[in-house]
Amino acid sequence: MGLLQEWREYAYGVELNSKEGKAIWDKYFEQEKAIYQQLLAAPEKVVSGTVQELADKYGMELNYMVGFLDGINESLKEPNPIEEMEADTVVKLPIDLESLYYHMVEAGADWLYELPEWDELLTPERRKELYREQKKSGTIVKERKVGRNEPCPCGSGKKYKYCCGRAK
Fold first, then answer.
1. Any idea what DSSP says for residue 168?
2. pTM of the model
3. 3-class SS at 105?
4. Which of 10, 68, 99, 126 is the most buried (most CB within 10 A)?
5. For strand 47-50 and strand 90-93, is the pairing parallel, antiparallel, or unpaired?
6. How many angstroms separate the CA atoms of 110 and 22, rounded?
7. How far apart are the first and last CA of the chain?
């Protein structure tokens, strides 16, 4: 079984609102925030190493590091082979900052997208723009429904009820 599968069973295999579930996620979020603070402090530096080396470097358990890599993977310029990852798999973290910010907003991780390190990396205007862009992408716009007595949208000139809206 791959490390990603082990992480998912560990993290998602318990009830989220249980005492154990809260402890797992609180610990993960705390460590995740610390890593992002370090990564955002030096964004031009591409962090690389084996999964185990990165876990040791950031003081995380291996399965928590796999969870972190799973979360950041879609925000990388070159995604890592997350599905077949093992402890000795070499990974690189070339971060796309705008994509990372967008995905943090998408995940609802306000403790991450409100980090003070973002002030140096993205302008407040660009951050607001990315925030709005993400929120808008989740909004469903209901199309206007054609009324029975309105002209048919096909352009025939007939009423909708006598044209395309006719029961067949």
1. -
2. 0.75
3. helix
4. 68
5. antiparallel
6. 18
7. 55
